[in-house]
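Q: what sequence does this backbone want?
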């Protein structure tokens, strides 16, 4: 097995046989020509042919990759008409009394070197365009055209380099992917590959072409830019699995993006996504989540050496809210402690950290930390549709104290004339059996519940979620857990609150129907599970 690494320009995976793309070798000789006028006439005729070809390529590109991307071939036509380019060809023919092919090749070399030496990476990438039009012009003189792409089906095209026009002439129904030894991710070749949805890796290095033969097996990973030649069985199995998952995801996207989360009998449910930081927002949007059901804000505290300032937090919360353009964003306040340790908090070691000083217990004991976060959240609330929820609740008095602190923060903001939204939804996580059992008392105090099944399961079944030895004892479908969720749902609705689930069980498709029958209003899952959950919901019939 050989492994090469380059730049993946379109995220997809292909596995198949290699077809090495051989360009027509044109050995340009310099010959003395007495009749330079006749030579200039040959250039003119070749240009005419090249124009016809480029217009055909433009039409194909227009159909396949749209106007913006097709414009590159209009630019190629303009380049063919460029005065500097044409003057250079004419000058070389006339001043040196040489053949047109030589004059074009020399002009191409000079212009290509000029573009390649420019600072700007966009301009550097234009070198490939000059070479493309010059090769076409020479081909039009010699044999009336430029080589077409290989005609074998289901192959991975491997080439030293591909020009934009060679790329657009590839029959995307026939080829699986392409890999080039050279090229930049800014090149039109890369841009076209991206828009033609062809898995492609470029710039894998000059040794590549010498290391492969027609018919070799290759696995191309357009996500990572890796190319495996004759992959061993382990690598092949891993990449096949990645391909299967990718295809499933794309199929789901095609089928379900933009569709409603509605059962066959017309019951609607919100499907939101869980995130740990702003980096995940792209995946939330791509997977068409209706909102963010859990933003684990403690990640802001974990990745650093000191407390994040109010302003730093505000900027992160604002970014999430703005990126979600008015869709619901539920941010959970700090849930540090237990498995999430941070030195600068100066927390003592504990015998039973999961049952220890964590989450809301820290916030209520050290209100200055809590208030800083609340101020950042309230200030950010004007930028979107914010919900705030509190973790690890066990009692009414805790919630009363939290609401008092929220009021204190609002009063402070009022005094300073700092704006915040009047419509922030306030919720609590149902993560302890205590909270579920007294959910009738808690529900009237909040807008929503969000069930954290990871902790609810650990506390109900007395199974440390960090201990792998306990897995056989930790039945995530345990009736006790189900009953606590059902009780919480009943009490939430009785008091006009809504209820969601944001622990891992929300994505367990074998429970989706049961949760809907309990009246769960929202399921918040990892972004990559949003569409699978939508698919499951759309196949449920609660009338049966
Ligand atoms: C949970 O406990 O289910 C939950 C969502 O919170 P975390 O996993 O962050 O503890
Ligand atoms: Mg939890």
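A:
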């Amino acid at each position: 097995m050989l492994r090469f690494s380059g730049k993946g320009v379109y995220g997809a995976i292909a596995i198949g046989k290699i077809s090495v793309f051989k360009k027509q070798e044109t050995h340009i000789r310099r010959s003395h020509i007495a009749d330079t006028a006749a030579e200039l006439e040959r250039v003119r005729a070749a240009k005419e042919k090249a124009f016809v070809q480029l217009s055909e390529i433009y039409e194909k590109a227009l159909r396949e990759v749209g106007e913006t991307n097709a414009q590159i071939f209009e630019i190629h036509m303009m380049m063919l008409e460029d005065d500097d380019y044409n003057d250079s060809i004419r000058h070389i023919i006339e001043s040196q009394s040489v053949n047109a092919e030589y004059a074009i090749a020399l002009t191409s070399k000079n212009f290509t070197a000029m573009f390649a030496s420019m600072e700007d990476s966009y301009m550097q990438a234009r070198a490939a365009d000059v070479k493309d039009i010059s090769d076409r012009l020479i081909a039009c003189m010699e044999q009336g055209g430029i080589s077409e792409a290989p005609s074998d089906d289901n192959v991975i095209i491997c080439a030293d380099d591909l020009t934009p026009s060679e790329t657009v002439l590839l029959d995307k129904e026939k080829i699986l992917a392409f890999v080039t030894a050279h090229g930049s991710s800014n090149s039109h070749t890369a841009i076209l590959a991206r828009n033609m949805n062809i898995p492609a890796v470029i710039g894998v290095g000059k040794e590549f072409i010498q290391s492969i033969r027609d018919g070799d097996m290759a696995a191309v990973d357009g996500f990572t830019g890796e190319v495996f030649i004759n992959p061993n069985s382990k690598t092949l199995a891993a990449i096949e699995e990645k391909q299967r998952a990718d295809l499933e995801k794309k199929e789901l996207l095609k089928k379900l993006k933009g569709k409603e989360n509605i059962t066959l009998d017309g019951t609607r449910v919100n499907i939101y996504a869980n995130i740990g930081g702003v980096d995940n927002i792209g995946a939330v949007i791509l997977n068409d989540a209706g909102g963010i059901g859990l933003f684990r804000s403690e990640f802001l505290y974990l990745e650093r050496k000191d407390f994040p300032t109010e302003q730093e937090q505000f900027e992160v919360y604002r970014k999430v809210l703005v990126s979600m353009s008015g869709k619901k964003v539920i941010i959970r306040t700090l849930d540090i402690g237990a498995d999430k340790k941070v030195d600068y908090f100066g927390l003592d070691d504990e015998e039973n950290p999961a049952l220890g000083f964590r989450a809301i217990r820290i916030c209520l004991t050290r209100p200055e930390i809590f208030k800083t976060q609340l101020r950042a959240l309230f200030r950010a609330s004007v930028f979107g549709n914010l919900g705030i929820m509190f973790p690890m609740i066990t009692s009414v008095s805790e919630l009363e104290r939290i609401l008092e602190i929220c009021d204190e923060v609002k009063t402070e903001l009022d005094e300073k004339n700092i704006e915040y939204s009047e419509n922030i939804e306030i919720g609590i996580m149902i993560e302890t059996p205590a909270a579920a059992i007294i959910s009738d008392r808690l529900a009237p105090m909040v807008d929503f519940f969000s069930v954290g099944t990871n902790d609810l399961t650990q506390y109900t079944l007395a199974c440390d979620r960090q201990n792998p030895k306990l897995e056989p004892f930790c039945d995530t479908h345990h009736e006790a857990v189900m009953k606590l969720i059902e009780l919480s749902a009943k009490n939430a609705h009785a008091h006009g609150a809504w209820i969601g689930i944001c622990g891992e069980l929300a994505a367990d498709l074998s429970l989706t129907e049961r949760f809907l029958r309990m009246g769960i209003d929202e399921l918040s899952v990892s972004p990559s599970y949003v569409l699978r959950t939508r698919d499951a919901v759309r196949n449920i019939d609660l009338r049966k």
